[in-house]
Amino acid sequence: MYQAGIHSRSSTFEIASLYEDELWKKNIKTYKQDLITHTNYYKMQVSENAASWIELLVKFSKREFFKFKKVSNFTYRKVHEQTKRLIARLINNEQYLLSSYFSAINKIEKIQMSIF
């Protein structure tokens, strides 16, 4: 439980005792997701202190995932000769294309791309 995000020894022990029938063969993510999915149930089973740790776990585990459409192949100057992957970034309200190791950093001023 500690590795799942409950960083209080007493609360970790208390929450872990709810899983006493478990053989602890599952990975940490599985237990963490179970706590998040069944938050209300677990909060009613434990002390106020442990319940507050569960609330913190839920609060800091919320992530938003975005799925982007694939961009078709294109050339931009000769950047495609330096790297196979470019990352679009907005820096100080200006658009840039960056390579993962910053070998290519190109400010985008006007769209001039060739699509193959």
How would you briefly describe this protein structure?
37% of the residues lie in helices and 16% in strands. It is built from 5 helices and 5 strands.
Structure description:
The protein contains five helices and five strands, in the order H-H-H-H-E-H-E-E-E-E. The model has no long low-confidence stretch (mean pLDDT 77). A hairpin with a 2-residue loop joins strand 2 (86-91) and strand 3. Helix 1 (9-16) crosses helix 4 and helix 3 runs antiparallel to helix 4. A three-stranded antiparallel beta sheet has the order 2-3-4, with no helix packed on it. A two-stranded antiparallel ribbon has the order 1-5. With 116 residues, it is α+β, with helices and mostly antiparallel strands. The radius of gyration is 23 Å and the shape is elongated.
Keywords:
two-stranded antiparallel sheet; elongated; 116 residues; alpha+beta; single chain
Layout of helices and strands:
Elements: H1 9-16, H2 28-37, H3 39-45, H4 48-61, E1 74-75, H5 79-82, E2 86-91, E3 94-99, E4 105-107, E5 114-115
Antiparallel strand pairs: 1-5, 2-3, 3-4
Helix pairs in contact: 1-4, 3-4
